Structure formats: structure tokens, C-alpha cells
Amino acid sequence: MSVDGIAVTTAGAGMRRPLAAARPRYGDKLIKGFFAACAAISVGVTTAIVVSLLIPAIGFFQDVSIVEFFTETQWSPGFSNGKFGVVPLVVGTLMIMFFALIVAIPLGLLTAIYLSEYAPRSVRKVVKPTLEVLGGVPTVAIGLWALWFLRPRAEEVFPFFDWGTQFSTAVAGVAVGVLILPIVASVADDSMRSVPSGLREGAYALGGRKLNVSARVVFPGALSGIIAAIVLGASRAVGETMVVLIAAGRGTPNLSFDPTEGIQTMTSYIAGRATGDIAQGTPVYDSIFAVGTLLFVMTLAMNMLAIRLVRRFREVYE
Amino acid sequence: MAIDEVGLQSGRTRAAVAGARAATESVFAAPSRRNRLANGAFHVLMLAGLGVGLLSLVAIVGWAIGDGGSRLTWGLFTENPSVVAPDEGGYRPAILGSLYLIAGVLLLIVPIGVGAAIYLEEYADKTRWWNRFIELNIQNLAGVPSIVFGILGLAFIVRGPLSLNFVVAAGSMTLALLVLPTVILASREAIRAVPSSLRDGSLALGATPWQTIRRQTLRVAIPGITTGVILAVTRAIGEAAPLLLVGAATFVQRDPEMFEGRYTALPVQIYRYAQEPQSEFRDLAAAGVIVMVGLLLAVNAFAIWLRNHFEQKV
Description:
The complex is a heterodimer of chains A (318) and B (314). Chain A is mainly alpha-helical and 318 residues long. Chain A contains 13 helices and no strands. In chain A, helix 4 (87-118) crosses helix 7 and helix 12 (266-275) crosses helix 13. By secondary structure, chain B is mostly helical. In chain B, 75% of the residues lie in helices and 0% in strands. Chain B contains 13 helices and no strands. In chain B, helix 5 packs parallel to helix 8 (168-192).
């Protein structure tokens, strides 16, 4: 033992190794490079999305003027002298978003207030994962549920409306609302929970009651996070495809504003048109990409807004 | 504490405290009737809001079992799809297609997603603009609609630069890009949660950064990373919209292959059945929903088991 110890000491003293590596570690550089490349892929993906949308979209706008695209109120690309006015598709998308938000904002915010301010820990522990499961239900399943379960119920509850086909904008929108409910609830809950408890205690010390503290202190304190939750939900609603495709059908885009009729949105146009066999390079084919570009820009703007709001919120409290 | 001590010391102070308390309580008298009503009403409202959300989950599952339960036979898994005989049609190529797709997705997202997360958490200098740009970019990618990824897959992977044609591999790549932000964000969270004392200790003992990451950081972060990967996989299983664009739309009656021939996936096949007018196809589609949700639950259960397994070891 002692001999070993001496041997080690002398060896250590004799070598006098500097702390820096004797030769450059190319392996470490290589590994770092690989990880950096992985991270850079995400930038590559964004670039690829922009390129793959823009090139055909530019081709499209050589055939159809931008002014016509945004002002024409008819969308009938399939016909021989097809009209390419995107307004009806945008209106369809906004109608779906409207109905989705009518459902998701009150339900989502009530759920969030309950979870963050009122719920006992045990309830919270059960409810949060359950909501996550709801958020994970495949959109096809929600779409079919809307078409075959919600739609007949809607007709029973509101028999005085004129329910035409099996498709309905309102039912599809409500189903999308159920879909985005967990996102709205979860983001809003997070932001309310990160309101410092000192603010709550201060309000209680001044004689505030639970309802007042929740509604007048926590809610306004978390407002930017709550708006972010709503914007994120709206962005998901705008981008949702399958539920709309199934439950709103691909109704004629005719600006009817009738919630009991089916409707076509930007997403359902893309999904429906791209699956049909159409020749590449025609205006009809390129219109997929033009609509896709508009969809991408809309959701990107909403997401940027949400990210900013969340960031500002964090800056205030952390 | 302070008040108690003071109170013990002198009866006068105690009297003063009691007086102050009485004064305060008289200001904040018992809640008025209106106030109590408002509180109660709000409580009911919140529970109703929560209840609607939870009930819709119950309604979705209940509807699927009610409509599709009778069709839940072994043949559902082993039979090829059929448009003429809904009683005999099944999901065999669709289930296999989904499994192939997921295998491809896993192969891509695990190295790339974890690699990107390691770079951003362990190597990246946050003061550099390009690293901040990458972060912002990933956050934004997470919000891009799935159908836009379908367009990307169509223009870049199926046609264009990669030109793989309508094959499983193209579908896998498209889905992988779609769920990549989920994996990166979850892995970053997991890596960030590793205490820095572990890293510092390892580095102080002379380990290189890579040795530290491999032997310390990743070991501890694996449960969190696994959860993120599973979350991404469950999303990929249920996703149909981008697959419609990258080729999984047709009626396929043979088992899939990775790089050759058309394919289909579970959600796409369900959607296809749902378009048939006869009511038997409704039941078939609902049965497909049961299978899909069952698959999701199985994957989730596996994730929980895996996490517990790793957590015991570490």
C-alpha cells in the first residue's frame, strides 16, 4: 500500500502536467459541431418552409393578380374560368376561430382560475393530466365525434334552426374549441400561478375576498399571459385541419355566414385540393401554396405576438 | 411570535392588540349576502366550466366505444381495408403503416432533437444573436400549423430536392420535422433541470465537456427527455393532415415498405372510412378511433413505465 502511494506521488510530481490539454481535442470540436448542426436544422426547416411556399406562390401571383386574390369574393379554382378570391376562405377560417374561441375562452379561463386559485392539490393532480389527455386526442377522432355525436345533439337542442346537410360551421367550430381548450387553460393557469403570492397576500390583508382577489388582482396581474393563451388557442384554431375538413365538410366557399351550413377554410382547401390529382404548375396547384403562405403568415404573426406577451410577462415578475 | 412575547410581558399591550383586532373585524364585517351569493355563483360557474371540458373527453371516448365497440374484433387488426364489404374491412395496412411511420420518426427525432437541446443548453452562448435566433425559431416552428408541414413535405421531400416520392420514409420525415420542436423544448427543460453542481464536479475532476454531458447530464435528464419524445410520438400517431399531402391518402391493400410503394396510416384510414356513405363504415371508423386511442394509451403507459425504470436506476 505505502509503496504504491509513494510510486503514485513521485509519478505525479515527475510529470508536471499542465492543466490545458496537450493537443487540441478535435473530437470534442466535432461533437460540438454535430450538436450545433442539429440546432441549425430547425432554421433550415423554417427556410425550407418559406422557400417551398414562396416559389409556387410567386408563380401563382404571375397568373392571378394580388389585388384579385385579396379583393375578389369568389373562390372557384376548379372551373375553367376559375375565380381566385381568398376572402371566402379567410372568412370561413375566421368563423371557425370565432366559434372555437366562444367555447374555449370562457371554459378555458374558468378552468384556469379554478386550477390556479381554488382547486385543492389533490384535485389539481387529477385534473391537469386529464386535460392533457383531452389535448392529446387525435384531431380525426374529434372531427368524427363532432360530425356523428355533436351535430345530431345540436339539432335536438336547436330544432328551430334550419339544419341543412350533415356539415355545420358552428358544430365544427365548437369541436375546435374543445380541441384548443386544454391549451388555453394550461397557458392561462401557468401565468396565473406565476403571479407572486405577495400580491395575493397583500390583497387579502386589505380585506379582499377570494373572488375579488382572483378577479381583481390575479387576473389583471396575469393578463398578458392570459392574452397569450387566447392568441395561442386562436392560432391553433386557424391552423386546425382535420376537424374542419370532417365536420364542416368542404362546403362551397360563398360567404354565406350561416353557421348551420358547411364551410371551407384555408386549411381544408389545402388538404382537400392537394389530395386530388391535379397537374403541377397550373394555377390551381399553385393556389395551394398561395393559400398556404397566407395561413403561414397569419399563424406566425399570432405566435410571435404570444411569445412576446409571455416574455414581457416573465420580465415583469422574474 | 413577536406579539405573543409582548403579550406575555404586559397586559396593556395584550389589551391593545385585542382592541385593534376588534376594530379591524368591525371594518371587515361578515360577508354580505350579495357577496356570498357572488362567491357561490362563481364557484359553480368554474366547476361547470371545468366539467364541460372533462365531460367532452368522456363523450368522445363514450361515443367511440358506443359506435365502434361492436366492430372491435380480431379481424379489425388483421384484415385489409375494403370499400365494398364494411363487415370484413380492417386496418392492417394502416396499423402497420403507422408503426413504420413512428419507427422512422423516432430514428430522426431522438438524435436531432436531443442534439439540438444539448447544443442550446450546454454549448450555446446566449449572448450571440444566432443562438437567440435559433431559440426564437424553434418556438415559432412549434406553432406552425401541421398542414404547412404537409406542404413542406410535398414540395421538399416528396418532390423537389429530395424527391423520395410518396413513400413511408417521406411521411416519417414530414412528421419528424413537425414534432421536432416538441422534442427539443422538452429535452431542454429536462437538461436545464439537472443541477449544475453535477456538471461542475465532473468538469473539476478533469472530464471534457462531452464526457460530462454523456456521463452526468444526460444520465439524469433521460426521464424528462423520454417523456418529451413520447409526447412527440403520440402527436405523430394522431396526425393526419400533413400525411394527406405527402401521399398517405390512397386506398392501400398491402403491407407498407419503408422506401417503396404507397402507404396509409391509422388516422388517414379512419378518415377514408368516414367518407363512405353506408352506416357500417361509421362503426368501422369509430372502431378505428378506439384502436388509435388505445395505441396512444399504450405508448403513454410505456412512457410512464420507462420513466419509473430510469428514475429507480439513477
